[in-house]
Amino acid sequence: MASHTRRKLKLPDQIPLNPLLDLWEQQEPEGPDATRIYEFYRSLAEGKFVTTRCITCGKIHFPPLIVCPNCNGEDLEWIEIPEEGELYAFTELKLGAPVIVEDYAPFVIAVARFGNYPENGVQISGMMFDVSYEDLKVGDRVTWEIMEIVGPGDKTRYWYCFTRV
Amino acid sequence: MIRMREVAIVGAGITRFGVREASWRDLVQEAGKAVFDDVPNLDKKDIDSLFVGAAQPERWVFQTHVAPYVAELLGINVSRVISRTEVACASGQAAIRYAWLAVATGLSDVAMVVGVEKMNSKFMSVSQSSMINVGNREFDGVNGFTAPPFFAMVAQRHMHEFGTTSEQLAMVRVKNSYYGARNPYAQFQKEVTVEKVLGSRMVAPPLTLFDCSAITDGACALILTSEERAREFTDTPVWILGGVQHVDSAHTTNQFGDLSHWVGLRKAAKDLYSMLKISPDDIDMAEVHDCFTISEILEYEELGFCKKGEGGKFIEEGESYIGGKVAVNPGGGLLSNGHPLGATGVRQAWEMVMQFRGEVPEERYVNGAEIGIAHNLSGMAQLHHIMAYSIYKRKDLKQEV
Ligand SMILES: [Zn+2]
Fold first, then answer.
1. Residues B158, B339, B375, B384: which is the catalytic one?
2. What whole-number distance in Å separates Cα of residue A94 and Cα of residue A114?
3. Does residue B291 carry a catalytic annotation?
4. What sign does the dihedral B273-B276-B279-B281 (CA atoms) show?
5. Is position A112 within any domain?
6. What are φ and ψ of residue B194, in 5° steps?
7. Domain stops at, among A62, A80, A98
């Protein structure tokens, strides 16, 4: 027993960040990570912010969908979200930011309404950078802006944020 | 139509809540031991069903299939119904509701409920990131839109529309800390002042650290049985009068509508009151889901304790203290107890049992209480659950009240 050496299982030096903590959809047009709303991300890459509207019942969706939950219709069209909207509510995340965007905290998180919500518009959340809570007020005009999400590795994905007009 | 049996809670046990030096497994065993000690006449063989409320064990402790694991840890064999419920922050009350339904319909004779969550670890930013997927991860969570920013915006809109103030928000914490200071199981047992709440670190304006409930470890367990067997186990059964749930088709910001109106809670409360033929005035005490101070203010309003928009005034005038219009969170609420997601709803029922039995310190005892409700919400306040508890059976309610 004295000469017995214990067996060791050596683990990797670093365990990589759980990929589930990557919050963005993979935005792939094909393969196992494919999304059937790929058109949404393709449009973002082209500088357009779009969503789906049901041709049958007229309901506007956000997020964009492949079946209308209002009427089960599959006949959907892509429409552009208006460029300017109104700040409905906002705060600034000073503690407890998700680990993947921790380096950008504190940042403003806002809810803005574009178009005539709820009948004919959307209410969406978005980040705001280079502005603080004290600079903003309910009702301020905002616009959406496309941003690039770079990484992990060579991957580039697309998303949006809000900017004050 | 199925004849619904009367159902009682005949046993209740809880662990200390807080940042516990204990694993998920330890917490389950502690709560199980506590409830078995509470019901010495219970033979484990009597238990035929198990309902486990657990929100994210697969994220926080990397364990799935948790209900069978709980059965093993507690040494019980389940022959009727075994289930784990997950509706985020309200997983615990959902477990109670399904246990109640199983016993009420005769599917189960003796059911056990365990609510448990282990949330603290050395990797807190990763743990907190797991909360982001309670909302729509890819369309809201991705923007950092987790619970504190959401409830901060609810507060901002409530202030904007109704003139509610940060001081009024702070008063909710002051009240709940007063009761929490008299609850030996609570995470925070220190009284705080309005100044202390306002001066604490800003989390997401207008909410400070003390406006928020904490990340907590804890577990709580109950034994439910029917009218036929309740007296075998206890002289002081607490009867379940009924329960309601309401959720609108609303998981993403686009479907929220107005943040300062919790229509789902208003509808759930209306259903509960008409089911039991009672009004808000009949309620003596309420354990409500004060995950944030602003939540309790909206809950006064939507539960009908005061008019819409007057929740701030309600706390300012002391109406939610014991001795006011209705005793709200005499157990200290989530703000004092902490909020181990799956355990919270079960802890609320535990508080009702202790209150009705008179087993709480005098300063937080709601003397003479006949009807109590527990409200447990989940997500971005889309899903609302309310259970009603009483010293009376449902069939005796009308004569007595
Ligand atoms: Zn449609």
1. B339
2. 26
3. no
4. negative
5. yes
6. -55, -45
7. A80
Q: What is the pLDDT of residues A8-47, one digit of tens each?
A: 888 888 877 666 688 899 999 999 999 999 999 999 999 9
The answer to whether position A8 is within a domain reads no
CB neighbours of A72 closer than 8 A, spacing ≥ 6? none
- In 3D space, the residue among B288, B301, B282 whose CA is nearest the CA of residue B384 turns out to be B288
The tens digit of pLDDT for each residue in A88-139 reads 999 999 988 888 888 899 999 999 999 999 999 999 999 999 999 999 999 9
Residue B119 structure tokens = 């949330």
CA distance A82 to chain B (A): 15
Residues spanned by the domain of A51: 18-80
Residue A93 structure tokens: 């995340």
Name the active-site residue from B89, B212, B220, B291. Answer: B89
At which of A52, A80, A108 does a domain end? A80
Whether A91 and A37 share a structural domain: no
B233-272 residues touching A, CB cutoff 8 A:
249, 252-254, 256-257, 259
Q: Kindly state whether residue A151 falls inside one of the protein's structural domains.
A: yes
Q: Does the reported pTM lie above 0.90?
A: yes
Q: Say whether pLDDT at B401 is over 50.
A: no
Q: Tell me if ipTM is over 0.85.
A: yes
Report the 3 state secondary structure along B3-72.
CCCCEEEEEEEECCCECCCCCHHHHHHHHHHHHHHHCCCCCHHHCCEEEEECCCHHHHCCCCCHHHHHHH
Contacts of B126 in chain A (CB under 8 A): 18, 21, 99
Length of chain B: 401
pLDDT digits (tens, 9 = 90+) for B149-198: 999 999 999 999 999 999 999 999 999 999 999 999 999 999 999 999 99
